[in-house]
């Protein structure tokens, strides 16, 4: 396996870490592998270690090349800066596709909380001309082929959402509130260009209400975008893998039911992408990404 790191800004504060599985004559059926880009949460104030490498290593163990993006946060987080970061990361991944034996038509984004907001933002705004131009990339090179959203922040359309006030302050910066309120509400930008999506949330989340995932799933259904949604009754916000690996010793960060999302999302992604890009089953599944309905 190769571990590589790429700075995406001159000062090195934005980085993309790559975990690339080596090719082997003993696994000759893997001529190309799909990939998962992980976006940790942290309220646009930081990026959580608990939602970074541990998640990437899970998908790595399932046969995916994986990547972790440490995007713009804090005083640098005003939109569209994080969206420019993830667009450049996606373009870089696709630029190395041949060298890394990576299938550039099977690249998923996995984001948590604020990272889920960023993933959903890319899934709904990747095609906008201003984003492509500011990122300095070729059109379409930042398109995600699937979204995996864990307890994502989706909307700031509700003024009463005071629990997320600091996050929105970071995301908006000094820009006009009314204008940014619309731009940052992902459910308003879902369309036929949005990829199939896997969502999980907990009913007990007292930081990002479960309504955020419901809003996004409703928008997906309205536009006939396939999705899978899991809502677990228990589990705190930021639960990550929901097992001992990401528990920090706190019992409320371990929940066997919620931990099921990890295997469920992997299985969903393989069903969507197909196991091998060169097989007939794989080709049939990749056709789903052209917006055909799931059978």
Write structural notes for this entry:
- Helix content is 32%, strand content 18%.
- By secondary structure, it is of the alpha/beta class.
- An eight-stranded mixed sheet has the order 1-2-4-3-5-6-7-8, with helices on both faces.
- Strand 3, helix 1 and strand 4 form a beta-alpha-beta unit.
- The longest helix is centred in the first third of the chain and has 15 residues.
- The radius of gyration is 18 Å and the shape is globular.
- The termini are far apart.
- This is Alpha/beta hydrolase.
- Keywords: Hydrolase.
- One of its GO terms (molecular function) is hydrolase activity.
The oligomeric state is: single chain
Low-confidence stretches: 277-295
Based on helices, strands and strand pairing, what is the structural class? alpha/beta
**Using only CA atoms, what is the Rg?**
18 Å
SS elements, strand count: 8
**Cα-to-Cα separation, first versus last residue:** 36 Å
> Strand count, sense and closure of the main sheet?
8 strands, mixed
Mean pLDDT: 91
- Give the strand order, joined by hyphens, for the main sheet: 1-2-4-3-5-6-7-8
Features:
295 residues, alpha/beta, Rossmann fold, eight-stranded mixed β-sheet, 18% strand, disordered C terminus, BD-FAE-like_dom
Give the helix/strand layout.
Layout: E1 2-7, E2 15-20, E3 33-39, H1 53-61, E4 65-70, H2 81-95, H3 97-100, E5 102-112, H4 114-125, H5 129-135, E6 146-150, H6 165-172, H7 177-183, E7 197-202, H8 211-222, E8 227-232, H9 260-273, H10 280-286
Helix pairs in contact: 2-4, 2-5
């Amino acid at each position: 396996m190769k571990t590589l790191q790429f700075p995406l800004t001159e000062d090195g504060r934005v980085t993309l870490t790559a975990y690339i599985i080596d090719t082997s004559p003993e696994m000759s059926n893997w001529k190309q592998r799909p990939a998962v880009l992980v976006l940790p949460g942290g309220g646009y104030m930081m990026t959580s270690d608990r939602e970074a490498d541990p998640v990437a290593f899970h998908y790595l163990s399932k046969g995916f090349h994986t990547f972790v993006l440490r995007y713009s946060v804090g005083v640098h987080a005003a939109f569209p800066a994080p969206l420019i970061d993830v667009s450049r990361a996606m373009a870089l991944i696709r630029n190395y596709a041949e060298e890394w034996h990576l299938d550039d038509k099977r690249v998923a984004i996995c984001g948590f909380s604020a990272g889920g907001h960023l993933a959903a933002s890319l899934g709904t705004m990747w095609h906008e001309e201003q984003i492509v131009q500011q990122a300095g990339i070729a059109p379409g090179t930042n398109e995600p082929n699937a979204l995996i959203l864990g307890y994502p922040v989706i909307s700031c359309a509700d003024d009463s959402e005071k629990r997320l006030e600091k996050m929105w302050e970071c995301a908006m910066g000094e820009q006009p509130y009314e204008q940014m309120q619309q731009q940052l509400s992902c459910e308003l930008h879902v369309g036929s260009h949005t990829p199939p999506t896997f969502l999980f949330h907990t009913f007990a989340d007292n930081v990002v209400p479960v309504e955020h995932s419901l809003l996004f799933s409703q928008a997906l259904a309205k536009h006939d975008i396939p999705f899978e949604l899991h809502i677990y009754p228990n589990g705190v916000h930021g639960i990550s893998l929901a097992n001992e690996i990401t528990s920090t010793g706190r019992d409320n960060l371990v929940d066997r039911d919620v931990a099921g999302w990890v295997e469920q999302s992997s299985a969903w992604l393989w069903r969507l992408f197909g196991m091998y890009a060169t097989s007939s089953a794989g080709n049939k599944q990749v056709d789903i990404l052209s917006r055909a309905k799931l059978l």
